[in-house]
Design goal:
seven-stranded antiparallel sheet; alpha+beta; 170 residues
């Protein structure tokens, strides 16, 4: 086995590397401890509370990802509240909603969130990034059943069939 030659470091360089190693270890430990102890059910409750004025929201379960900044909501149902008694309340069902927060983007001053929603046989995937000087939204939907989407609330007309769309805003 060949030995890899290491550079000769002085005592000051060794001390700096030792301190840098402890700082990196502390940051990694903090991020993973936060991921493992974060109260995800409170996030679920805040989402239900935030949407309560327009929707009856139920979320079956919330799972954390194995990497920090990832969360999955399973069996999300949004039922629109009818403003008038003769209106039909539409129900919007998301089988699986994955949200990934960009941890490394935060270091650069940008809040970035990736979204992947499984709605029936279709998907909505996209990224939303917000920084001081700009906002970027890039969302794509494929094979979405319009009967399962809140189209009546969005455009005022009932729809049927499959929808595909792409939105890229800067």
């Amino acid at each position: 086995m060949a030995k890899v030659p290491l550079p000769n470091l002085g005592p000051r360089a060794k001390k700096i590397l030792k301190i840098a190693g402890y700082v990196v270890l502390a940051l990694v430990t903090f991020v993973f401890a936060l991921q493992l102890t974060f109260p995800y059910n409170r996030v679920k409750d805040k989402i239900v509370e935030g949407l309560a004025s327009k929707y009856d929201v139920t979320i079956s379960s919330v799972d954390r990802g194995w990497l920090p900044g990832r969360i999955t909501f399973n069996a999300v149902t949004l039922r629109a509240r009818a403003a008038k008694s003769d209106e039909v309340a539409t129900t919007f069902f998301i089988k699986k909603l994955e949200v990934k927060a960009g941890i490394f983007a935060l270091i650069g001053g940008t809040a970035s969130v990736d979204i992947d929603a499984e709605i029936g046989p279709g998907h909505i995937r996209g990224t939303v990034a917000i920084s001081k000087g700009s906002t970027a939204i890039d969302i794509e939907g494929v094979d979405l059943p319009s009967a399962m989407l809140p189209m009546r609330e969005a455009i005022g007309l009932p729809m049927s069939g499959k929808i595909a769309f792409s939105v890229d805003l800067n």
